[in-house]
Amino acid sequence: MEKIIINLNPKKTDNKLDIVLSYQSLLKEFIKIFSFLVFLFFILIFINNLRYYNYKKNYKILEPDFNKINDIKKELSILEKKVSELRNIATPKIFISNILEDIYLSLPENIWLEDLSYKNLINIKGYVVKLNEDPLISVNKFINNLQKRNFYKIFNKINIKDSKKTNFYGVEVLEFSLQCAK
User: Fold this and answer.
1) How far apart are the first and last CA of the chain?
2) Residues 95, 33: Cα–Cα separation, whole Å
3) How distant, in Å, are the alpha carbons of 11, 14, 20, 90, 154 from that of 25?
4) How many angstroms separate the CA atoms of 156 and 147, rounded?
């Protein structure tokens, strides 16, 4: 009699071909999933390229406007350079030495300066001692002398900011402040 073998454990096989055949269905599923992912990837690339094509098409429509804007920007930069050059030509150069000379030559003998500052305007602070005339008349002479010089061509608005009588080392003087603007 022949011996009958019944395998009650289907996973246990001795045959290598059976193992390969059992993984064949798993391999088919993996290939299907991989194919689907590749197909999905190609669809995404196609959609992205389509979007890029639309951008390119829109750019072609907007390209003349873009070129006009760039041309206008170039013209603006050229005009700004010309305006800067014209401002340099039209703006007179101010030489501080000439201004200081005009101030010095305009001072009456009874005025001396304590402070002089210059940014966009000149602030002059000084003192007047009473000699033969009223100190305010001396300040007025100083302003009139400045108006007769080149100083007045640059700083044509000369105003008295402040004036007050004060005591300077035991001598009564008039302290004054002038503001000279362009």
Assistant:
1) 132
2) 85
3) 15, 19, 9, 91, 99
4) 8
The pTM is what?
0.48
Residue 92 is classified by DSSP as: P
Q: What is the pLDDT confidence band of residue 96, given thresholds at 50, 70 and 90?
A: confident
Q: How far apart are CA 57 and CA 51, in angstroms?
A: 10
List, in sequence order, every beta strand (DSSP E) within the chain.
Answer: 111-118, 122-129, 157-168, 171-181
Give the C-alpha separation, 81 to 70, whole Å. 17
Quick: pLDDT tens for 35-94: 999 999 999 988 887 777 777 776 777 778 888 999 999 999 999 999 988 877 776 666
Residue 107: C-alpha distances to residues 124, 158, 178 (Å): 12, 15, 13
- Is residue 151 packed enough to be buried (19+ CB in 10 Å), middle (13-18) or exposed (0-12)? buried
